[in-house]
Amino acid sequence: MKIVLADDHPVFTAGVRDYLDRVPDCRVIACVTSADDLVRCLESTPCDLIITEFSMPTTRVSDGLHLLSYIRRHHPQTWQIVLSMNAFPVVLQQIINSGVNGLLHKSDAIPELGKNIRQLGSDTPYVSPSFQAMLQVEVEEQGKYRVPSPRETEVLRLYAAGNTLHDIARRLSKSVKTVSLQKAAAMKKMGLRNDIELGRYCATFTGDVIQPHGHGDWFLPELACGKQAAGH
């Protein structure tokens, strides 16, 4: 099995690679440190499995969810395992819903990666114990965290990118009241209490600056969150 590793922490990548070198039939053929480098690598280096961090530096692809979507559309036969430290249940559910084959917490024991690899091809993604516990809390709280609708997500993305409610209403041809209600509904679904928490939520998707609208396949606007809300 040919594997590409993507993570912007070289020490972590070295540890994963050392483990995979001892797993039968696994061979790491490339390591990259950004979302942009991963996309470029896949164009010239076909592989069977991508093991990637969710939030990596990027200047073209908008965020972690869009990276996963881009890979799924352009490399549909390639398995994807996501590594993350994310603690937002709604983000974890969005990652799972994106069609990945595994979701592991970076603090999990390294053999969890081997378990995930052995289950590749299963109808359901492998979710490590740490993330299973986080998602169980969500269930026990009776669905406190829910995924916003595409329009609600678009409103949040535009707001987090620095647009006012009036700007968003004009861009989407909606009333300010409608846009305000959509923003409030989306935040309530995700358990976000104020704009500061909204900024932190958006910051979990990406590790660097994103380009503005207009980059074709590299930029999928319906789900993106801008980093400006995180203080950049």
UniProtKB/TrEMBL annotation:
Q: Which domain of life is it from?
A: Bacteria
Q: Which positions fall inside the Response regulatory domain?
A: 2-121
Swiss-Prot/TrEMBL keywords: DNA-binding, Phosphoprotein
Q: Does the keyword DNA repair apply?
A: no
* A Pfam family recorded for this sequence: GerE
- GO terms of molecular function: DNA binding
Q: Which CDD domains match?
A: LuxR_C_like, REC_NarL-like
Q: What organism is listed for this UniProt entry? A: Collimonas arenae
What is the official name of this protein in its record? Capsular synthesis regulator component B
Instruction: Give an example GO biological process.
Output: phosphorelay signal transduction system
Q: Which SUPFAM superfamilies has this protein been placed in?
A: C-terminal effector domain of the bipartite response regulators, CheY-like
InterPro entries according to UniProt: CheY-like_superfamily (IPR011006), NreC/VraR/RcsB-like_REC (IPR058245), Sig_transdc_resp-reg_C-effctor (IPR016032), Sig_transdc_resp-reg_receiver (IPR001789), Tscrpt_reg_LuxR_C (IPR000792), WalR-like (IPR039420), WH-like_DNA-bd_sf (IPR036388)
Q: What is the lineage of its organism?
A: Bacteria, Pseudomonadati, Pseudomonadota, Betaproteobacteria, Burkholderiales
Q: Which residues form the HTH luxR-type domain?
A: 141-206
